Amino acid sequence: MVDVFISYSRDNKPRVADIAAAVAAAGYEVWWDAELPPHRSYGDVITEKIGMAKAAIVVWSQASAQSEWVRAEADVARNQKKLVQTAIDDVMPPLPFNQIQFAQLGDWHGEPDHSGWRKVLLSLEELCGRAPVAAPVPPPAPASPEPSAPNPLPASPALPIVPGAQKPSPLPWIIGAALILGAALVWWMMQPTPMRTVTSAGSGSGSAAVAGGEAHDDAGGNPAEAFVLAAVINDPEGFTNIRAEPSSQAPIVGKVLEGEKFLTYQQTGAWWRVRKGDGTSGYMFRKPIRVLDGPNPDPAPSAGTASAPFVAPTGVGGSGVVIPDSSDRLLSADELTNYGAVELRIARNEIFARHGFRFRNPTLRAHFSQFSWYKPTSDTVQLSGIEKANVALLKSAEAAAQ
Predict the structure, then answer these.
(1) Nearest one of 240, 254, 262 to 282, comparing CA atoms
(2) Which fold has domain 316-401?
(3) For residues 362 and 355, what is the distance between their CA atoms, to the nearest angstrom?
(4) Class at the top of the CATH hierarchy for domain 222-291
(5) pLDDT tens per residue, range 54-78
(6) Model-wide pTM > 0.70
(7) d(CA 372, CA 208)
(8) Ranges under pLDDT 50 in the chain
């Protein structure tokens, strides 16, 4: 996981490179879009990296204050409570970010005791959960004679060796240390190999005893033998994502459709490891998983009780649209507190509906088909950076409201 994401204007790239280098020297893993992969879209990578980072440094300048992308990235970081603001020009952060403290780095040139830079390090320590690495202290320069000092004195002659005076021999000390180390080594080799208990991050089916070395599979043993329970999903969206790690911020590695069978095993916790028939494996949120067999199968949902009753919101002016401008501006977490879980779900999906997305879920398809503005034309759509940020925020608020 990346520690620090840096948002900036390309006009300031040389200056930001110094900041990135200093953050890396402090022991934090840094990402800025100088490393943007050529095969990934800008919006996808930026949204993913901000979500995965523990802290996001925004470098405000005359140029970045006018950048729509920098403002969007700063707003996403602010909503996720990981924003660290800096300024390299004589400029205040734009509205509404001028209400949040920022560190002035206009006159910073790498000094570790600079007041603005110390503010940045304190924020990174709090957000990343660990203190920065101290900068290495350079060796002292050799002292040079004062300009008015006389020529250096010649070296003192070596003292004569007094006959009969000898240095004590270090041999007894070396022999004693070798004997102690040898005894310690023999004692250590005679001890039994310790058994280390490894508990799966996503498994509650027991623990594996590992003698020396590392555990290579958190399910224990052969991964092919671990996935023994058939399962399907019960998700009102019609699909559930499989993620690389047990987190909603982790990259998506696959998805399971409604009615598609996959394999898992008995686990505890909010995330379970799963594997599809094509070999795709990863983590899935436990709630939509319905285990079909084994000692504790999940009961089949009764007709009409698979999810909470769906009462479609009328939307603004009876249009069915909950937030009309969600494709044009960044939403804030505060304004979403007035909506219920169903309204937030519709608000999230209406962003896709504007682009003509064909919904697989019958409830969503029936809802949007009532309105003349909805023209289903495609199974895939391209969202803007603002839309992607709003979809992530709406999904988070929806989960909290359920």
Answers:
(1) 254
(2) Methane Monooxygenase Hydroxylase; Chain G, domain 1 (1.20.58)
(3) 18
(4) mainly beta
(5) 999 999 998 888 888 888 888 888 8
(6) no
(7) 59
(8) 137-150, 152-165, 192-225, 304-308
